[in-house]
Amino acid sequence: MRYWHPLAKHAVLEMKDDGVARGIALPLYPHYCAATTGSSLSDLRRWMRWAGADFPMAEVRSFPDDAGYLAALCGQIEETIQGQSTGGTHLLFSAHGVPKSFIDGGDPYQAETEKTVAAVMERFPGISHSISYQSRMGRTEWLKPDTVEEVYRLGREGVQTLAVVPVSFVSDHVETLHELDIRLKETAREAGIAAFLRVPALNDSPAFIRALRDIVLSAAGQ
């Protein structure tokens, strides 16, 4: 974990004690961002140097268009909107926000997020969609549109069924369980949206676990 136990330090010490000769670092962020993937990989390298763990460590930077990841994400969406009218449902892909300065400086996070959404929407023709960014903090300019502001816009445009896809999150936690399931659901009600659906994060979905397996095997050259 980046900010809780077990930390990279603990993982490195365990790998060293176990006599690991080769490692593969697989950050659970589908889309690369210097503040998340970059920070995690940098932290891992730092603790490897500290521990004198000199075995090679391959790094998976991102997997925005991996076929298995996309299939797992599409499966979660299909299960959530099953039975809903195709023409009356709007898919809102809510990604974690980052300061706009990151993107202006060349960070690929926004482009990789858009790549995932474009690939997913090829499998849902006829359904309207948009992308927004949540968890904005501070006074600096962040990526737009903000998720809350986007929901109000969709309400003004007459959307009646809203399915929110936490596209940059692979597991449910406070930013899905509270920020989306509680706060954003109330925002949707205030905006006049009749039905609020939230696509579950991938969590331990068998399709997602298979995707991770294949990503690791590919990184291992198998």
What does this structure look like?
The protein is α/β, with parallel strands linked by helices. The chain has 2 domains: 8-62, no CATH class; 67-198, Rossmann fold (3-Layer(aba) Sandwich). Helices cover 45% and strands 14% of the residues. The chain has helices at 8-17, 34-51, 67-81, 100-104, 109-121, 147-156, 174-177, 179-190, 206-219, and strands spanning 23-25, 57-59, 89-96, 128-134, 161-165, 195-198. A 4-stranded parallel sheet has the order 4-3-5-6, sandwiched between helices. The chain has a two-stranded parallel sheet with strand order 1-2. It starts with 7 loop residues before the first helix and ends with a helix. 28% of the residues are buried.
Major sheet strand order = 4-3-5-6
* Count of individual domains: 2
CATH topology of the largest domain: Rossmann fold
- Give the overall shape: globular
Termini separation comes to 27 Å
At the first level of CATH, what is the class of the largest domain? Alpha Beta
Structural Rg = 19 Å
Strand content: 5-15%
Give the overall average pLDDT. Answer: 96
Topology order in helix (H) and strand (E) letters: HEHEHEHHEHEHHEH
Characterize the largest beta sheet: strand count, sense, and whether it forms a barrel: 4 strands, parallel
**Uncertain stretches of 5 or more adjacent residues:** none
| Helix-strand makeup class | alpha/beta
Q: What is the count of helical runs?
A: 9
Number of strands: 6
Helix content percent band: 40-55%
CATH architectural arrangement of the largest domain: 3-Layer(aba) Sandwich
